[in-house]
User: Fold these one by one.
Assistant:
Number 1:
Amino acid sequence: MSKKVEEHGAQELLSKVEIPLIPVLCDMEHEGVALDTAFLQDLSREMNTELENIQKSVFNTTGVEFNIDSPKQLGTVLFDTMKIPYKGKKTKSGQYSTSEDVLSKIASDYPIAREVLNYRETKKLKSTYVDALPALVNKETGRLHTTFNQTTAATGRLSSNTPNLQNIPIRTEKGRQVRKAFIPRDADHVLLSADYSQIELRIIAALSKEANMLEDFQKGLDIHSATAARVFGVKEDQVTREMRGKAKAVNFGLIYGQSAFGLSQQLQISRSEAADIIKSYFEKYSSIKQYMDNNIQFAKDNGYVETILGRRRYLPDIHSKNHTVRGFAERNAINAPIQGSAADMIKMAMIDVYRAMHEKGFKSKMTLQVHDELVFDALKDEVDDLQKLVVDKMQSAVEINVPIVVESGIGNNWLEAH
Amino acid sequence: MKKEDNDNRLFLLDAFALIYRGYYAFINNPLRNSRGQNVSAIVGFINTLYDLLSNEKPSHLAVVFDSSDDTTDRKKEHDFYKANREKMPEDIAYAIPIIKEIIDAFNIPRLELEGFEADDIIGTIAKKKEKDHKVYMVTPDKDFAQLVSSNIFMYKPSRQGKGVEILGVDEVKKKWDVDQPEQVIDILGLWGDSVDNIPGIPGIGEKTAKKLVKQYGSVEGLIENAEKLSGKQKENVIQFSEQGLISKKLATIILDVPVDVSDDDLVVSEPDKEKLREIFAKLEFRNIGKKILGDDYSANVKTEGQIDIFGSQTDEIQAGKDLNNTDHNYHILNSKEDISKFIADVHTAGVVAFDTETSGLDPITATLVGMSFCIKAGSAYYIHLSEVHDEACKTLDAFREIFEDKKILKIGQDIKFDMHVLKNYKLEIDGPIFDTMVAHYLVEPEKRHTLEYLSEPFSATLQ
């Protein structure tokens, strides 16, 4: 096995990252987190009332009562009974689609669509988290012990289950409420959260050595505004909200190898406009384009791509003659080194933080890792020192030629700390 | 299907259609073996073949291949016929000789005739044999509906959980809305078929084609009555009448291929299990091997990519090795003396692989039932632990010096779980550790990393 690991160039990654991470994860899981079950019970009741209210309001608008949870009945009511024009394709079984996409598109003209979306979000949150989390609390320890999977995601990222922390929504107000339920151990503790800012874009800038983007990061600019200023050829103070929104979409889409078509769909703009934006983007950030092409070429030559710490992702389909299959591999050739490098970085940081905490005899505990964020159950007496230590170790985890920014906060629950 | 009919049933398999279907069924997540070969086509085909063999237990069967030399009469006549077909995907081209080898090992007749396509061969044999056989054309290809008669059936293998579908005359009539199966040819002639590059008549799709054939009986009938049509449709039928007739010809399965097979040529014999075992092992087919050859089948064949926890010591692993013909030395640690001897051996070896046997899978609450250890290949130890927590702690205390040793390498599979469990017994692991699951994750990130998978290295994950 060791021989095999060596053949795959993974010796260092294994001995310096993955193996030392095992006791770190084990301690985090064993420690667990405290959950405010009373808060969740109240939230559950509130959500019930809200669901009933939405339901009443929907029935008022439609004039008929039906099962909102049934996509079939909902489709019939919206598009047959109410005669809302239907633009999408029907599903395989000949039904109307009532997917988030379809409903979002008509939401500005038909408030009922917004209400249904709201209903679904509430219902989903309630069943997946608000009602489910308390049941996961361990009867013996009284705490919630999530499981971190170290070998599930091919990109190198960690995933978690019971509960799946990755899926807790952070973009909506209601989703954020769930984070409020994660609380410190007791009155002597607070939660500390530390989060890498724009880590994937910083990694692209560093790996591609894209001078323009590196400059923007070095100046500490808001990266999406800076991108908008470059792409649309305006001064930074002339960047409109809309321009920033478009620039942001390209910045993120880029990480996943998004096409002009994908971008046009996402921004609801024409394909030619999307193509123009991407063209201008790659003119301003020509090294990024070069970097992406190089990655694909590297995958073709070597059969894999790799991260800053040499984590490989094997892409046999890069040679496929089927263009859908090949396209998927090409997007992975771009995406895997970026996501994987971000994973390398936070894993190194976890090990460094864990060791430093042990050496310095901290009683506080690292408890959660989700996306680019670490959460600690911190003794109030230690929290200031711990915060400095964590930010420092996160910033210096992997030597990389771009400023790394870590945002951190302290609070009486996860939402407050984040 | 009545059992007494068994004797006169004849199954004809449309090889390429079934192979393509298998390949595309896994297109988003192709099955690969350790050498990275895409084996979807092989797996898909074998599964279909084996399901048929075990469900129908046919006595007469043949697998029919298209000729590699693609110069049928039809093609010679019309350049555009099947010109649309993309070149065969490389993974299918690679799979075909292997599939042929497997069919031969099954001792199943295989037919191929230079210059002819499989559908023509199947059609010809079906018509010849229908006098004294019930013929089942095994294919997902709808075109075969035209051949269905009182003794010829279409047999669509199950897919995506849908069961086998058998189409007789009544089913074809209903499905195609025709008075007799031959009219399927007329529908295809009008409708066209983009896969085979049959143009049909412009503006006529499936529904219109069915309606027009219902009304006018045939392509010829429609052309004769073109004046009764109206608008664009009338124009198209008149302008493209020639193309419609050619399309009909292209859609017609030829029934006079010079092929002569006797019933004896179509008899299914017992499979050559040795040969199959060899082929499956080479392909690293684990589940299929077990399914077809029985539970004692193991794909545990030494391959170049073999993962060895203990380096060269497992080099002698070969096909067919199992507990009964492999040296092994398994001990139960019963007494204090056993334990101290074992611990001394671990110190000498400097390495120990271990695993916890627990009452459950939640590591925070799991209680120990026992633990197993291994110091070198072929030699293992097991210790049973008391259900009483304090008793078990006492027994385990003897092992503390190993687990806390700063030099001894502790090897586990998902060692994090074992560390949790040991924590519950106040044992902390210190010193160097190694995790086979985590190591394998870096070698094959996309694959499973279970012990079963690692024990039969690099087997394709085949159902």
Number 2:
Amino acid sequence: MKKATWIRTVILVGAVGALELACDTGAVPAAMVIAPSAMVLALIKTVQSDDFGSNVERTLSAVAVAMSLSIVGGFAAGFVLHAIPALRRAFNPFLAAYYAIPHFAFYPLLIVIFGLGQLPLIVLATLFAMVAMIVATMSGLDRVPRVLLRTARVHHLSLADEIWHIRLPAAAPHLLSGLKLAVSYSFIGVIGGEFIMSTGGIGHEIAFAYDNFDNARMYALILFVLLVVTSFNMAVYAWERRLMRRRSA
Amino acid sequence: MTSLRSLRDPLLVAVSLVLLWQVMHMIAGDVAITAPVPTLEHLWTMVGQARFLPHLRETGLAFLQALAIASIGGVLIGVVLGGHKLSGEVSEPILVGLYSLPKVTLYPVILLLFGLGMPAKVAFGALHGILPIALFTMSAVRNVNRTYLRAGRAMRLTPAQTGWYILLPATLPEIFSGLRIGFSLTLLGTMLGELFASQRGLGFLLMTAIDLQDVKTILSIAVLISVFAVLANAALLAIDRRLHRGAAPEGPRR
């Protein structure tokens, strides 16, 4: 293992240990933060509770729908914008300013339009995540070497074949970073929306536990979300690393 | 600099967005979306009312404090971690990991630590902004051309002079890009903080408007925040482009 990795592990373990110690000795009151060991115990208890499965399913299915919509739609939109420069010039200032808009300000409006349910959450998360994919797709397609496209023409590839065999692999690194953002933004959109106003889902459960001073359950649920997102990110990261190694080899 | 032509296409898109808004209003009716003109009129009267100003000031103050903390803290963290190789290597994956977490989930923790009110909003806004600023600053400091530093040493510059004449100009463009992203994220964080468990501010007004089914107010505030965000971002982006152009005189022209 590298030296930096060692130090990092020591620091992280030390931080968790220090928090544990501070909580156990009462330096940090349990009304604020509960000890990491208590969090894990609460997580085990929460996972076994009856309504946990349905809430997780609800949130994850909304995230999955929003994620797929934004990845596929974002790629398609990015492809069209890349193909028509005039359209791209027109939309560019909006794409650049897009993430400056606090999207959650529009969530109340979405509730009024779509009703209180899964639909406004999915719309919010998709709107939030799709533009990252659009931008990543455009910058990926910009960097496809021209010689590859010429080769495709020499081989008389159809448009679908050209996209599948040439453009997608050549733009893959950028597409992957867009994909990572889309995943992370879908989670933020869904959980944030559930948090502010909804009738179910993990975000709603966290807010509910907070309102009821149920710290153990609240920290357990937060820990669960962080674990899920982190493992997802690490999986994508590992996949990306493998792709890069194969390319450089 | 900006020709009419480069402005024309975005203007067309802006106009079509307003048209789309009008069409959606015509399809969905006043219950779901109010028409653009009455909404803007409502916004105008709302901004003129005395009871609106404290909310605007509350949000503005929270945002400015959060932005100050995020900018100063982020740049300091970035400079230290970028300047010292080992600590940068140790902490970069941690920072990237934190950056990609959905920080909304952490808001209850912030509320428990800071209590209800202003400090929690500021802390949550700063938490959103500080990570990208630190990451951008770190990579800026790390990528300073070693030749410049060697040239500075050859000319026997004092550390202060090295900072002012070499490090600052070399890192400013990229740090500014970080600040621009940090600006947007801090605004997002502050607004998010106000939407959940707050008693004052624009976010609070939004939540009250939902309870009252007051679509006009919801849309007015959303438009107000979006216009502010887009204009501020456009200004920052213009400065950003200028800095980047100045930074790479011999680079490829785009």
